[in-house]
Amino acid sequence: MTMGTSQLHSWLLLGFGIGLVFGIRWLALRVVILMASGWRPVLGKLTPHWRRTRPLRAWVEKRIPRTYSFARNRFQPRPFTGLPLTLLTGALAYVFLLMGGLIEELLEATELHAFDQRFNALLQPLRTPLLVGLFAWLTDLGGSAVLVGVTFVSTGFLWADRRSQFILPLWVAVAGSQLTTWLGKFAFNRDRPEFETFVTAPYASFPSGHATAAMAVYGFIAYALVRDLSGSRVRERFEVIFWSLVVIGTTGFSRVYLSVHYASDVAMGFLVGLFWLLVAFTLTEYQRANRA
Question: Which of 25, 95, 112, 120 could cross-link with 105 by S-S, CB 3.0 to 4.6 Å?
């Protein structure tokens, strides 16, 4: 491939990627706006059906009052210890199960390793000098130096904005995700893929520290930004969350593209980061509920 053809190939791939991101953004925004405008009528239609269950609920309450009271309190929408805590606990359990399933696949080695090898091979024709340089710059968004700086700066802004209830959960997400990542690296000691570019990395491969940290840090910052926006500002909330996901996804993909991680390393990193992100959400909301 000549230099001119290589550059054209690179720009076409870059243009396709940017177009794909904006296409997904346009579609996702339409869906979010539709859902935001349509959920109240749906709830209104469900209310009569819920009222018809009153005799059944009264019968259950009479037969097993303690169990019924516990279940009812877990699904009350208003207190944080009701439905919000129930949903967060369920999400934590689900992410934990996904992590366990991925670890099981890793220990079995054959299918997951074969998939990782095939995926890495598929990316090889797409590794051009221009894109390798671009992703080498983007991957630093998940590096320790950048994320430590982002965390300290975010802490300063949260303190200045008198939102100190977000600070401890932010550091819990950072510390917990990093500790879990390093424990995983030493426990599984997975070899990295063969380096295909000038970018290299030390230590074990599983899970990806960049993906973990990006999910935990940028995810929490997005949450802190949108948490106190009014419910009518759907567009602003969407933009913050969407572009945060783009940064997180790009950081994770860069590790596979640069051939310093397998796809499953990045997937596990996202799950670890998401687990600690949910822990941070829970801690923040609990503090806010106690201060109310």
Answer: 112
| Angle value at C-alpha 120, between 115 and 125, nearest 5 degrees | 135
In the chain, the amino acid numbered 288 is: R
CA torsion sign for 137, 202, 100, 113 is: positive
For residues 221 and 163, the answer to whether their CB atoms sit within 8 Å is: no
Q: How far is the CA of 124 from the CAs of 118, 230, 242, 259, in angstroms?
A: 10, 46, 28, 9
pLDDT digits (tens, 9 = 90+) for 272-284: 999 999 999 999 9
Q: Give the residue from 156, 153, 276 showing the smallest Cα distance to 209.
A: 276
Query: What's the pTM?
Result: 0.90
**Integer Cα distance of 118 and 102 in angstroms:** 17
User: Which two structure tokens, joined as six digits, stand for 26?
Assistant: 């346009």
What integer is the mean pLDDT of 25-41? 78
